[in-house]
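Morning F.,

Quick status update on the modeling queue. The single chain you submitted on Monday has been processed. Sequence for confirmation:
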Amino acid sequence: MTTLRSLGAWLRWGGAIVAAVALAALGFVGPHGVARAATTSGSYNQMTGIGLTSSSVTVPWTSGLRDSSNQPLSSSAGQLAPNSDRASASPTGPVSFMYPSFKNLVVTVSQTKDIGHGGVTVKWTGGVPTADLGEPQGNYLQMMECYGDATTGPDPEDCEYGSVGMFGSSNSSLPAYINSREGDLCGPGSANLQNPPRSANGDGTDYGCDPQEGQFPSHLAPCPGVDCSNDLSFSVPFDPVAGSGGSTAYGEQNYNQYFNEFDTDEVQFAPTNSSGDGQLQFETLTANEAPYLGCGQLESGGQPENCWLVIVPRGEYEPNGYKIQSGTTGAPSELQSSPLAASNWAQRIQVHLDFTPLQQDCPLSTPEVQTEGTQMITHAVNSWQLALNQQLNCKFAYEYSATPEGQATTDVTSPGLSSGDGNGLVFTTIPIGSEETRYTTGIPPDLPDIVYAPVAVAAPAFGFNIDEGPGGYDTTPVKLTPALMAKALTQVYRFDLPDYAPAVGDFPGPTWSQNNPKNITFDSEFQGLNPDVAPFSASGVSLAPLEIQDVNALSQQVWQWIDGNPTADSWLDGTPDKSDPVTADPQYVKAKLGKGIADDTFPRLYTGELNLGFDDDSNPPKAEVLGSTDLLPYTLNYDTGASTVVTAVDPGVSDNWNNFNIAPNNSPGYWSTDGPESPGEVFMWTVDDTPDLAAYGLVPAALCSGDGSNGTGSDCVDPSVASVGAALASAKKDSEGLIEVNPAKVPSGAYPLVDVIYAAVNLDQPAANLTDYADFIKYAAGAGQTAGSDPGDLPPGYMPLTSSLKAQANSVVNELLSRAGQHPSSPSGSGGAASSGAVTSDKGSTSVSGSTVGGGASSATTVPSVSPSELDVVPPSAQLAASNTPSISPGAVRDTLVVVVLGGLGSAGAGILLRSGRMPRRRSRRLPPRASP
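Structure tokens below.
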């Protein structure tokens, strides 16, 4: 099937647009939890969040029924397959014939406490290998998130499961019920291996009727499904959590009002590899994303709703005793029954998940101290402000919004600050106003006195979700070279071109592309560097990375890394690489991306289009033309990019034109939404940052300094505290005294993309504002540098500040307090007295420790020396897990951001109606200045 990544048939979800857009906008400025993937060694990587947390649990199937403390249930009351029977050498239970497939299964969940919206790693060993014949057969796992306060765990009615379309069109022969909440009741007889009973409706024994289901009256009526009646079939309803406003729903047509294939986190097919192992990232949803589960929502007693991860292993037996012929083809070769059927449900492993409580907002009347800036700081600031706001007891609230660089410059230099209005602190990785110098017409603003306090260190990165065939989830970092990234970002692969669509008609694409690979996995350079990644053969699928459209220095860093490699640089400018047969896109060559100032965005320059050429007089005309921005839509932000990749929900459309779809221009007819990528056919990645990759547990790429033309890319380094610290030690001062890492000039073993994030404060503010900002920086550079998940900790994805960076931050604190008329003091836990001096910008010059220097003189600010002890970051005793930060009542900045997002979406058409992590958009190059509140 030809897949066209596009802004798609978004209006499918009609009336939900307003709610979805609001959720996406506020979800971005609001908090998300943190999660990490598990590694074989169990080691912990602070920069990626990869490693086991102290709340991880390892659960053998033989004791898989766990209580709310994740201890094995001792009572067998009401259980068809209790732990005691599972562990018995001679089990006697009515479903014990299924046990041999699961008796050696052991599941590890990387995190069970302080859960927020993110991803936890589920890893298993001891399973029976899944037969790979292009469709689900037997011997796999199914997973779902459930709620339930009972110590014995949730009921199947309490679980989010049963969305249609999760397997994609490549699995058109999907069995009837393994993805549903319905199934067949049995005729006379109990489970029997030699003579299984038939279905009550006359279906054969291979349809897997369940003899145990007739005892549950709530599963029998009402039952609106096809061939569904009290004596033929059963239907497990979905019961929304109490207080959510929902009512019991039977049948997919009813419960899709609560969840569907685009916003669910259910896993309908998780294969086990030939070694009996498997791994995947399971997305965890809070009540913000899944209100009808309510996870993290406070109940009447003040405790958060109890929620669970339920894992249902599937073997080769149906509930009636029928054994499928796994590894063969034909009707009897695959399981047919739902995991919610009583006999299958009895085999479950249930793990309790402690969600961080979703706190209530401060009252709307609460005064706010505004901050804003780079989205890279989002996770850290959300953690810090939660701790500070709790300490303040809503006396006032620190408020943060992610905004573009130009908006931050406008706000922090606003004349209104002198009277106490506006945002007097913004987070930035570059000097305020310097974004204007990237353009020939740009004029740097006339700056007031601004001080810069380092508060965090993070890194741009590339995150992958690869799940191919029997090998399952790939945990090996993909190796990328500058040359590969140059190709991935410039539409040279045929499936990245909208007019290459041979499955639709005579659309061969441009002549220059005829000999280019179909996608990056067929590139000989990629194959040489990544022999463990099989070529992704799904027909027509674009494997271009998800990217944001924002103009920013982080995107520019990626291009600087590319341009710093001679081979990639010359290829971008049209000089062919004799060792690389891939032809450059002439329209990108014309842009000269390898010359002059590095670009600061990811442009869509190819102008070819796919035009079906319909002859009709509809008004508005049919939207049969697809261009590059439709094929390769931009994602809203780094958080949405990571969330989209971990859930593998393809934001594009297929080549299947549907006259009943509504196009973004409201005309009848449009391409069908492609939706979730099929299990075993997942390959998605994103240009992102380490905090968001760590939040969702994506596998970051290893960046190589060599050109990789012979498949041997040299010095391939993935992000870690050690590799980021090595790059930081090579940093130089820019014209304003801020330290910058040149990605093309880092030493061996250093990760090339590194940023120090500064809190920039305008000194022309009332004393009260300066004091509030000093308190914030004091906390951020002190207690806020403790790695962990509690409110106020430094989340994964950030390297703790070095002692010299802490000292610079302390100097800014002292400067702010001095300006406010208070006696400055060294902040507690800040790493010693401030000795490096505050970095102060005064209309283009830099003042350090009382002496003014210009042009980034060598005496400006101290480049951090990184000692080995500072690189030794280990997990704290507290859970290194998600901390879901409560939102504070929306202030002027957040309100403005919502308006901007809504405006941007309005100009782009409709938005794909998914959770906050799944909304592509187009946006203008510059955002308008925000009016002072």
